[in-house]
Every structure is written in C-alpha cells, then in structure tokens.
C-alpha cells in the first residue's frame, strides 16, 4: 500500500494559495454519460447540427456537468484532506462562456477563505476557475466558469486520536 500523503488541516491553508489543478478533455462520451445519468436530453448538449444552428461550434456542456468536474475529490489535494474533512457545505457556480465537446480544460483551485466556526472546525472556501487550454478558442484566456466550493474542515489534528511516538 502506498504511503499516505501528509494531512492538511484548515490552519495549514493559506488564503490566496493555489492548492490544486487538474486537466480533462470533455468528449462526447462524457456528454452522453451525463445525459444518461441525469435524463437531460436537450439537443444543445449532444446534437452537433442543432448546436451549430444555434451559433455554437459544437455541442455545449451542461452547466451541472462543469460543476461536477470541479469536485475537490478529483484532485490530489483530496488525499491530503482525508483526516480533516467534516463535510461539504455548498457549491456556487457562474457559467461565463460555453464549453464545447472536445475542449481540453484546466481547473485551478485556490484557497479563498478560512473562517473559524465552532471549536476546532473552520469553513474553508476554494475558488475554482475552469479555462479552456486551446488558446485559439479562448481569446484572452478568460475563464469559462468559476465555482466556489465550501467545506467544513478540522483546524488541526485531533490529539486524542494521534499515534503515540
């Protein structure tokens, strides 16, 4: 079994620090799987001719699919939060520009806030920006979507369960 990663707690996270990133290509299979899972059958998401007729260069990603891609659990950071994670409390999304089938995307995760709540627990906010990697399809490299994910994290290791040395 691989060695576990160093665990992080709310007090270890610095506001403004980029703590994770990931890349993914959204292909038609992802669009169709999302449609099958949710029951969303709007043709803008899977019919290239329909999307072209509406002025897009191809099928447009469903906003909820993009939000799902922002899952913190899909990043390497997730392994470092196993011991501190209490709960996910909210997700907010802004969809700024369309994401088209075949786009290669980069998501970056930045610590936005660490707010103490109850004894030993803080509300931690992560801002996530989703960019298309293809420079020719995204002038100025403006984000396609932005998300704010909020979690309750323990402030520090629970000493009552810490291993003895």
UniProtKB/TrEMBL annotation:
Q: A GO molecular function for this record?
A: (3R)-hydroxyacyl-[acyl-carrier-protein] dehydratase activity
Q: Which Pfam families match?
A: MaoC_dehydratas
Q: Show the coiled coil region(s).
A: none
Top-level division of the source organism's lineage = Bacteria
Set out the biological process GO terms recorded for this chain's protein.
fatty acid biosynthetic process
Matches recorded under Gene3D superfamilies: Hotdog Thioesterase
Q: InterPro entries in the record, alphabetically?
A: HotDog_dom_sf (IPR029069), MaoC-like_dom (IPR002539), UPF0336/Enoyl-CoA_hydratase (IPR050965)
Q: Which CDD domains match?
A: R_hydratase_like
Which segments constitute the MaoC-like domain? 19-116
Matching PANTHER family? HYDROXYACYL-THIOESTER DEHYDRATASE TYPE 2, MITOCHONDRIAL (PTHR43437:SF3), HYDROXYACYL-THIOESTER DEHYDRATASE TYPE 2, MITOCHONDRIAL-RELATED (PTHR43437)
This chain's protein is named MaoC-like domain-containing protein
Organism of origin is Candidimonas nitroreducens
């Amino acid at each position: 079994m691989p060695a576990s990663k160093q665990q992080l707690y709310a007090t270890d996270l610095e506001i403004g620090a980029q703590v994770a990133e990931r890349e993914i290509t959204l292909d038609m299979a992802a669009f169709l799987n999302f449609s099958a899972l949710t029951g969303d059958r709007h043709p803008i998401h899977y019919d290239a001719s329909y999307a072209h007729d509406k002025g897009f260069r191809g099928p447009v990603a469903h906003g909820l699919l993009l939000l799902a891609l922002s899952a913190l659990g899909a990043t390497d950071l997730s392994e470092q939060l196993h011991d501190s994670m209490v709960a996910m409390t909210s997700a907010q999304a802004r969809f700024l520009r369309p994401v088209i089938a075949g786009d290669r995307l980069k998501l970056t995760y930045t610590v936005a806030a660490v707010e103490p709540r109850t004894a030993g627990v803080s509300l931690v906010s992560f801002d996530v920006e989703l960019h298309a990697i293809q420079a020719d399809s995204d002038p100025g490299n403006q984000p396609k979507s932005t998300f704010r994910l909020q979690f309750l994290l323990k402030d520090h290791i629970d000493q009552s369960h810490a291993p003895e040395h």
